[in-house]
């Protein structure tokens, strides 16, 4: 979903191994409801901010009872979207193939090791432990280089020469369009996590952070999420996650709580940057249209930051605790 989520799972694997319980399925159960709540909250807030809608007006809009001016505006937007949709035309064979690959990858991720029942990785016996989420991604990626982008013909009767179809993906496209800088940044984050442990810095941090034991865990998580959210407004979210997550892991060890209690909400908070154009590439894309001012983004983004901080705290204390047993110090810390 986001490079910061990948940094979280990578650092957890580097520091604690594969038994942390954070995989595609468990993270989806935690992250999806959080995303839905934040998305609905963002829509409601933007409606109120830019259309001046109260609770009664929101209900009326759901019932298509807005005033005539707003109805005309909605009709114009709907017409434009339908026109652009019709211009797309029917899905090509290549588009359908990529969609099927994407769906298959998600299914394989979820069913690899769903915990409550044996996953398909168990079919490989003792070797099943070597199969990770990355294994699925590499297998699907390899398939892209082999699967044809045009519908294959069952026969070539009457054809002078058999015509081969190009694959869905070629190396030239990967070489020129893959975000190699992001891969290097992710790898650097994992190397940093290893360096923190091997150098002995992790032990020093764990000892120093014991002073925070006097704070309630909820207050500590709220402070961390707030700091991360507003820090990532002016810094790269991937860089922020890369630097802060190993430190939070050792901080949690030092005060005797589950590292996931601090790391997971912090990783999600790295993606909650809504106030400035430089905070995240989507903000910059929207701002580049030229119809928004910085003050407009700050007015809407400040409330969204606060809302998302509240949602992340709420889902961590409830849903996160139910899925990952955050109140228990884990046995996978050695």
UniProtKB/TrEMBL annotation:
Molecular-function GO terms, alphabetical: succinate transmembrane transporter activity
Compartments in which it is found: Membrane
Topological type in the membrane:
Multi-pass membrane protein
Q: Mind telling me which InterPro entries this protein's record contains?
A: Na/sul_symport_CS, SLC13A/DASS
Q: What is the protein's major site of localization?
A: membrane
Please give the start and end residues of each transmembrane region: 24-46, 178-197, 209-230, 301-324
Record's Gene Ontology CC terms? plasma membrane
Keywords of this entry = Membrane, Transmembrane, Transmembrane helix, Transport
Question: Is this entry keyworded Cell membrane?
Answer: no
Protein family: Belongs to the SLC13A/DASS transporter (TC 2.A.47) family. NADC subfamily.
Instruction: State what protein this is by name.
Output: Solute carrier transporter 13
Give the source species: Meara stichopi
């Amino acid at each position: 979903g986001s490079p910061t989520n990948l940094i979280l799972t990578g650092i957890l694997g580097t520091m604690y191994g594969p038994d942390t319980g954070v995989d595609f399925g468990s993270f989806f159960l935690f992250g999806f409801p959080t995303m839905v709540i934040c998305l609905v909250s963002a829509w409601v807030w933007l409606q109120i901010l830019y259309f001046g809608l109260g609770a009664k007006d929101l209900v009326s809009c759901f019932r298509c009872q807005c005033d005539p001016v707003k109805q005309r505006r909605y009709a114009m937007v709907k017409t434009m979207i339908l026109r652009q949709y019709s211009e797309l035309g029917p899905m090509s064979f290549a588009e359908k193939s990529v969609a099927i690959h994407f769906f298959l990858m998600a299914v394989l991720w979820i069913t690899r090791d769903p915990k409550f029942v044996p996953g398909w990785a168990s079919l490989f016996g003792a070797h099943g432990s070597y199969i990770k989420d990355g294994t699925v991604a590499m297998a699907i990626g390899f398939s892209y280089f082999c699967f044809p982008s045009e519908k294959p013909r069952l026969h070539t009767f009457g054809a002078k020469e058999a015509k081969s179809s190009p694959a869905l993906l070629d190396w030239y496209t990967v070489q020129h369009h893959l975000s190699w800088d992001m891969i290097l940044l992710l790898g650097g984050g994992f190397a940093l996590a290893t360096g923190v442990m091997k150098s002995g810095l992790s032990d020093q941090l764990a000892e120093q952070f014991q002073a925070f034991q006097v704070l309630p865990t909820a207050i500590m998580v709220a402070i961390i999420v707030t700091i991360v959210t507003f820090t990532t407004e002016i810094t790269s979210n991937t860089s922020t996650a890369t630097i802060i997550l190993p430190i939070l892991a050792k901080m949690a060890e030092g005060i005797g709580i589950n590292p996931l209690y601090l790391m997971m909400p912090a990783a999600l908070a790295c993606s909650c940057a809504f106030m400035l154009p430089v905070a995240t590439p989507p903000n910059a894309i929207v701002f580049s249209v030229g119809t928004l001012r910085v003050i407009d983004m700050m007015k809407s983004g400040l409330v969204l930051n606060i809302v998302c901080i509240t949602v992340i705290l709420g889902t961590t204390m409830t849903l996160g605790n139910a899925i990952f047993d955050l109140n228990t110090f884990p046995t996978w810390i050695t």
